[in-house]
Amino acid sequence: MSKPRLVLIGNGMAGVRTIEELLKIAPDHYEITIFGAEPHPNYNRILLSPVLAGEMTVPEIVLNELDWYASNGITLHTGKQVVAIDRIRRKVIADDGSEAPYDRLLIATGSTPFMLPIPGNDLPGVIGYRDIKDTDEMIATAKVHKHAVVIGGGLLGLEAANGLKLRGMDVTVVHIGPWLLERQLDETAGRMLQQSLEDKGLKFLLQKHTEMLVQGVSGRVAAVRFKDGMQIPADLVVMAAGIRPNYALAEKSGIYCNRGIVVNDTMQTYDPKIYAVGECVSHRGIAYGLVAPLFEQAKVAANHLAGYGIGRYTGSVTSTKLKVTGIDLFSAGDFMGGKDTEEIVLNDPHGGVYKKLVIKDNKLVGGVMYGDTADGPWYFQLLKDARDIHDIRDSLIFGQSLVGDVGHAGNSKAAAMADSAEVCGCNGVTKGTIVKAIKEQGLFTLDEVKKHTKAASSCGSCAGLVEQILASTIGGAYTPAASDKKPICGCTEHSHQKVREAIRNEHLTTKEAVFAELGWTTPNGCEKCRPAINYYLISTWPHEAKDDPQSRLINERSHANIQKDGTYSVVPRMWGGLTTPAELRAIADVAEKYQVPTVKVTGGQRIDLLGIKKEDLPAVWADLNAAGMVSGHAYGKSIRTVKTCVGAEHCRFGTQLAMDMGVKLEKMLFDMYAPHKVKLAVSGCPRNCAEAGIKDVGVIGVDSGYELYVGGNGGIKTEVAQFLCKVKSDEEVMEYSGAFLELYRQEAWYLERTCHWLDRVGLDYVKGRIVEDEDGRRTLYAGLVAALKDAKDPWSTSREAQPVKQFIPITVAA
Amino acid sequence: MSHWKLICKLEDIPALGSRIVRPPKGGDIAIFRTSDDKVFALHDKCPHKGGPLSQGLVHGERVTCPLHGWNIGLADGQAVAPDVGGCDRFDVKLENGEVWLAI
Cβ contact (<8 Å) for B16 and A812? Predict the structure, then answer.
């Protein structure tokens, strides 16, 4: 049987993106034909402004080369405009008479510039700003003519004006509104923007009504005349007074339209065989004029075209970034505010910085930034996540503290960095390399940048910087997904949150059940989702879900840390950092017997034996077990160490028995797996020699009891732990910290450290569950104790249960 | 000339796992078993920084290197795009539950 036929009208970003998404999930489902009115393959329309400004060339902004169409078996008709859709015979007809039959039709005809209905709007020299042809005409005109007038002080108009100025023209921007970008900026920011652009040599005429365009003796446009009688010379007039969804073809074909092709949440039109995406559609009464929503729409449309029937598009919150070099401006959401909103404003006109955040019901609903937009992506994420900002309100306006992130020389503002500056210290990736990849490869998401450049793909501490670079390079096309909607990996559309909920609500206890229930697209997942699912299963259903060693990464599978040469390091547990002469003797014996090349004291108060061959691991464990020692879990997303100071046992300042408390905590938490590694510390007095302020749980003894701190981190992101509460007894320390860690184990996403989880949910939420809800706390604590009941040393169980031979190579005789 | 050598039984390799084979001349070879009991053999050296692929996580017909997370195709030994590189592959066959390797 032949394949069903899919025809796409409109060879632009939205349509082709949908085809790409479709090919990803159902590569052989359709025979695909694409019609494009322009003579080019699909290109990145949002980068036309850099082309006009002379910063890029047309070949650089092509997203899909002709090879791409050919290698995916797509029939491409360029330079052909579809003039009719015959819905009865199910075929489309192009202006050259060619026809293509369809079983499914996708309309992505985009939008057209709105040409003011005034006399002279069809004169030579009067153009819109939409495509390569318009851009070429502007570049050509700038070479021979002097005066340009841009009608419209919106994003597109300002980018056009900036480009024409750089091309040497004398440019005046005419704007009907009271300030520039009134749909993206409030008045203060609009005025600041105007000042900076005037400094660049642009002229502005605000609140001016254009009456007509005057023809010159050459036949070409020569001047613009306003209603107040004023007239200015113009050899080129660019109409940038808005765009209109291009739905004429659909409407003519009898498809229901209302200021756009009306689609439902699956991007389907009123004709069930016809879908539509992009700027031509009207979804819930909104036609989007920015690129960002297209990507979400494309995903949904592709899913339904592929016949999976999953996913709904429910609308987008968009953000704005003006792509004019040297001007930093960001706005998102409801930035004007109103009666029921509150505002936090930072205004430094001399320093050229203005920030306004709009808050409603303790949530960020919008914001404008001018001059310093470094935190734009962070605010946008908070907005999308609808995160309760009550606990960070005091410092919100100052942005996300990037203090403590290391590996990029303290840089926190991507725009100010030189192209040669190193952004990712792990993989040595510079800003220039990232920008180049974003432009040349057509990257739109952080994940794509990670894959192509490796930036932010190791420790991840520079992810914020990379996002800033992405946002400033692609402008309004940048749109992070809400955190709880980001897919775990390429195997699924589902987020960590969704998977956790399904495992709990549907009582799933095997990875196969998860894959089947949630429609995984790969037979057995990948290196990202499988360890996460295995953790969710065993933490949600302890003693019931069975641990799957093949879903664990090598360190947890071999209970040791792999090193760069393929050898392993072994760390026996030293409870609370305490050891004995007998243990030290046994460690020394192992080091000599197995010729361990390096013996090192770790940061967690124990001893690391580095350079052990894998085949020696079972024997090393046996020797250490024989001396009474067990695994230190130095390799796991699990409890690592409880660091202690000497406390009141010896110290003249000590107020509490820190070592004793530390050993008790470490014994309680033995063999506890978690979303990420977990470190604790107990100090006997506020001098805090055990450095409890940078641990996941820090306990500090005071004369009247203990202070508990949570969410500290000394590694990737130096983060000071936040005060949770004060307790009186050792038993309470166990109960509160146990309950806190159980909540983290149950609700954090895999690979989220406690500090990142707290960033996401807020300290208030955690206090509510642990400090204020006594019954809830007891239940959580009991859950942890039950989960860790009968915990066994993984070294001895591994030696006994798992066939040890898997550690031994198979030798082949000559 | 390579010769078929009997290596082990299929069940000696864990499903979605691997074993190391050490030939007389050295140069460890990793043999992999997928969830549907296909077997593959690659030089146990990731094209990126030489990581032991035998210690990686097997999924579908790919293995993820344990050192820096490159994905390598089990059938062709080639890195999955956008990474570029490859390692040697070896013929391997399964007969009556026994794994044979051409070395």
Answer: no
CA distance B49 to chain A (A): 8
Let me know if residue A576 belongs to a domain. yes
Cβ distance A655 to A703 under 8 Å? Answer: yes
Could you give the ipTM of this predicted complex? 0.93
Q: What angle do CA A624, A662, A695 make, to 5 degrees?
A: 100
User: Are B57 and A813 inside 8 Å of each other by CB?
Assistant: no
Can you spell out the DSSP letters for A41-88? --B-GGGHHHHHTTSS-GGGGBSS-HHHHHHTT-EEEES--EEEEETT
Same domain, A390 and A436: no
Of A78, A250, A241, A61, nearest in space to A160 by CA: A241
Q: How many CB atoms lie within 10 A of CB A490?
A: 14
Give the angle A305-A307-A313 at the CA atoms, nearest 5°: 60
**What is the per-residue pLDDT across A767-785, written as a single tens digit (0 to 9) for each?**
999 999 999 999 999 999 9
Interface test with A, best of B9, B13, B59 (most A CBs within 10 A): B59
> pLDDT per residue over A533-576, tens digit each?
999 999 999 999 999 999 999 999 999 999 999 999 999 999 99
Q: What is the CATH number of the domain that holds A334?
A: 3.30.390.30
Chain A residues touching B15 at Cβ < 8 A: 550
Picking from A522, A552, A564, the nearest residue to B67 by CB comes out as: A564
C-alpha to C-alpha distances, A713 to A601, A638, A684, A716, nearest whole angstrom: 20, 15, 20, 8
Bin A181: left if φ > 0, else alpha if -120 < ψ < 50, else beta: left
Chain A residues with CB under 8 Å of B49 CB are 564
Least confident range of A406-410, A754-758, B52-56: A406-410
Sequence-ordered list of residues with C-beta below 8 angstroms from that of A621, at least 6 positions apart, any chain:
A559, A570, A631, A795, A796, A798, A799
* Averaged pLDDT, A701-726: 92
DSSP labels, B18-65: EEEEE-TT---EEEEE-TT--EEEEESS-TTT---GGGSEEETTEEE-
In tens, the pLDDT along A296-335 reads 899 899 999 999 888 899 888 777 777 676 777 888 888 8
Residue A485 backbone zone (phi > 0: left; psi -120 to 50: alpha; other: beta)? alpha
Interface residues of B toward A, Cβ cutoff 8 Å, are: 5, 7-8, 12, 14-17, 19-24, 28, 35-36, 49, 51-52, 55-60, 62, 64, 66-69, 71, 82, 101, 103
**A648 vs B98: CA distance, rounded Å:** 64
Q: Chain A contacts of B69, Cβ < 8 Å?
A: 457, 527
- Using the structure block, give the residue that is written with the tokens 């590996």: A407
Helix (H) or strand (E) holding A293: helix A292-305
Quick one: fold of B4-102?
Rieske Iron-sulfur Protein (2.102.10)
For chain B, the structural domain boundaries read 4-102
Helix (H, G, I), strand (E, B) or coil at A707: strand
* Binary contact (B56, A554; C-beta < 8 A): yes
Q: Is B55's CB within 8 Å of A550's CB?
A: no
Q: Tell me if A770 sits within 8 A of A727, measured CB to CB.
A: no
Within chain B, how many helices (H) and strands (E) appear? 0, 10
> Residues A426, A358: one domain?
no
Q: Which structural domain range is residue A211 located in?
A: 126-241
Taking CA A439 as the corner, what is the angle to CA A434 and CA A444, rounded to the nearest 5 degrees? 85
Which residues in B lie closer than 8 A to residue A616 (C-beta atoms)? Answer: none
